[in-house]
User: Which sequence fits this backbone?
């Protein structure tokens, strides 16, 4: 950070499906706040949390505000690592092809579009958890 | 460098504890609070999962939440350590980070 303060690793652990509860939307809002403070932000999606990233979400018929498009804008806020757990996808009959194509622009490589979603297995997710300074659970 | 994991949901109703135990690293601490303490009752069907986890990490349970639910000290699984609120604070202070399983 420009003022010399320590940058911390913030990890947002998402375990709940969107729309059924407010957790997913609240998580997104806190993620954007964390990004504004120039912290090192990454997100984890396990259990029903993987449903937050489903492609083709359309909440119009429920009367609720759809917020899935916000995930695709995260790259613009330098939130570029969305770790999705393989076992959680498989248990739910999903693969990475069912998820939104979320990308960021890599300024070091002539703004090439790169995928933000990284599929990791349970052991890798455990290592990610053990590598953080701050974990926020939703 | 350890993580304190807190679990506040009954394992009979949600998968919070199961998911937590699947993501712990060696040397981590797991503290059962609120409805999470129901897992620590002797004879319950999650005793085996907790016993298996004890090899890699230490399991704690919050005494006031046990008492509130009528689970006596003698009914807690062996090898699960009971702590009070002060002990909760000590665990949080001794860990590098806290991860809540909701």
Assistant:
């Amino acid at each position: 950070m420009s003022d010399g303060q320590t940058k911390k690793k913030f990890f947002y652990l998402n375990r709940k499906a969107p729309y059924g509860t407010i957790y997913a939307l609240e998580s997104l809002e806190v993620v954007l706040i964390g990004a504004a403070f120039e912290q090192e932000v990454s997100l984890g999606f396990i259990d029903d949390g993987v449903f937050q990233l489903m492609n083709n979400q359309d909440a119009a018929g429920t009367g609720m505000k759809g917020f899935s498009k916000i995930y695709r804008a995260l790259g613009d806020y330098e939130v570029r690592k969305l770790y999705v757990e393989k076992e959680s996808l498989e248990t739910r009959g999903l693969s990475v092809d069912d998820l939104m194509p979320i990308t960021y622009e890599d300024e070091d490589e002539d703004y090439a579009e790169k995928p933000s979603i990284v599929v990791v297995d349970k052991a890798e997710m455990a290592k990610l958890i053990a590598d953080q300074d701050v974990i926020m659970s939703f | 460098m350890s993580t304190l994991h807190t679990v506040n949901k009954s394992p009979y109703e949600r998968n919070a504890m199961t998911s937590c135990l699947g993501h712990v690293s060696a040397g981590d601490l797991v503290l059962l609070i609120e409805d999470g303490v129901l897992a620590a009752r002797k004879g319950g069907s999650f005793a085996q999962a907790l016993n298996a986890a004890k090899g890699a990490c230490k399991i704690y349970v919050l005494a006031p939440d046990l008492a509130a639910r009528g689970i006596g000290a003698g009914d807690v699984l062996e090898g699960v350590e009971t702590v009070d609120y002060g002990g909760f604070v000590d665990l949080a202070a001794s860990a590098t980070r806290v991860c809540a399983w909701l």
